[in-house]
């Protein structure tokens, strides 16, 4: 599969290409969270810049292909810091998704049951 066959392109004010669907999803989530008033673009860019700087200082930053990993980590930390979500809640949700994925036959949609079991 070539890069053009595996990428997603969004055209707006400028063209943005995503190599994987989750990258487009995190991009859209950040834009919608901003539009919903969760944070300003200044707050976002400062938090993202701090995350990249910290990674560079510790040697954990990689190539440009890590950009959306930085977006994900920045969003998680920013929402936690602002009290919108909390680390424990996120970790519990990640574990619920992991269990649901393992219990789902290949090719079937993953269904995440609520605590009430529905």
Oligomer: single chain
Total tally of structural domains: 1
Terminal Cα separation, in Å?
A: 39 Å
Uncertain segments: 1-6
Mean pLDDT: 83
Structural class: mainly alpha
Helix-strand pattern, N to C? HEEHHHH
Proportion of β residues?
5-15%
Strand order of the largest sheet: 1-2
Q: Biggest sheet, in brief?
A: 2 strands, antiparallel
Number of DSSP helical runs: 5
Shape: globular
Rg measurement, Å: 17 Å
Task: Tell me what you see in this structure.
The protein has helices spanning 3-6, 21-35, 41-58, 67-81, 87-103; strands at 8-11, 15-18. By secondary structure, it is mostly helical. A hairpin with a 3-residue loop joins strand 1 (8-11) and strand 2 (15-18). Helix 2 (21-35) packs parallel to helix 4 (67-81) and helix 3 packs across helix 4 (67-81). The longest helix is centred in the middle third of the chain and has 18 residues, at 41-58. The radius of gyration is 17 Å and the shape is globular. The model is unreliable at 1-6 (pLDDT under 50).
Descriptive tags:
two-stranded antiparallel sheet, 118 residues, 5 helices, disordered N terminus, globular
In short:
The protein contains five helices and two strands; from the N terminus they run H-E-E-H-H-H-H. By secondary structure, the chain is mostly helical.
